[in-house]
Design a protein that fits this description.
Elements (H helix, E strand, L loop, with lengths): L2 H13 L12 H10 L5 H14 L3 H6 L2 H8 L6 H16 L8 H5 L6 H12 L8 H10 L9 H14 L5 H15 L17 H4 L17 E10 L5 E5 L10 E2 L2 E2 L6 H9 L2 E2 L3 E2 L3 E4 L4 E12 L10 E4 L11 H7 L2
Parallel strand pairs: 1-8
Antiparallel strand pairs: 1-4, 2-3, 2-9, 5-8, 6-8, 7-8
Helix pairs in contact: 1-11, 2-3, 2-8, 8-11, 9-11
Amino acid sequence: MPEFATRLLAWHARAGRHDLPWQRPRTPYRVWLSEIMLQQTQVATVIPYFERFTARFATLPDLAAAPLDEVLHLWTGLGYYARARNLHRAAQQVCEQHSGQLPSELEALSALPGIGRSTAAAILAQAHGQRQPILDGNVKRVLCRHRAVPGWPGETAVQKQLWRIADALTPAGQAADYTQAIMDLGALVCTRARPRCADCPVSADCLARAAGSVADYPQPRPRRALPQRRTCLLLLRRADGSVLLERRPPAGIWGGLWSLPQYEGDLDSLSEWCRQRYGLLPGALQAGDGFVHTFSHFRLHITPLECPVSPADAVLDAPDRLWYNPINPPRLGLAAPVRRLLFA
């Protein structure tokens, strides 16, 4: 066993995380669900979502059989909603193609929606004990510092180098423990800010620490200015307090979620737009306080526009529109800014 792994496993036995909810029991389904939720999201944030999810969808077939709206409803607030849509699609494919059991081969598992090479490897290592190197964000940071790997980890050449290092360091045995250990090391000790090098079990031969350059690794993604976009979200409200919602297209921002209607035209044309699109007659318009919602690739400046409307029946003809009453809300997945406006 590589000395790196020996020291890491000894540290994990005394200081690692052993009581995470997906470790009790550590089934392929629960490990898969946790790995998807943990993508770009911290453990403390994920735990309550994981517990609610597994309480409702105890098994993979339960998830596959559920309406997408309910899946997105339980995901609301966790962000990166493509993960939830892919999770649902993958569960359905597993039921259709693999008799309801997640594949135990890397290639077949990686072929499912939302499961990349590292996620598949983590599932197989933790749920089946297979020797599979992983390379999630925490592991990239650990390896970049330990081996002083230059460049941004998102670059193809840097990724290839990190995969070679990860493979060389992964032991033949104790796959589940090692996988959890190296993820824990990045999450608890070799953190992005203020790493605790004095507590690190592999600091003795860490090249970045020896050079006094831990903060320089991993090197950041080359900076670029985020584009700025603007939109209005319409709170078209009936007399009973309910507002009109529309389901977003499956692809794109907030894909598959329910959102307030977006309007980006001239305010003088809003009344005619509402008449043509919804058959509604808007009343007096009132603008609310604007705010900014930041996506990974742009910033969206949102202005809420409150507007009483009548009559209300015409919009019910469309399958992807509904009247949503925040006092007695249906179980739907809502875009975060919409939830903010409805429940402020």
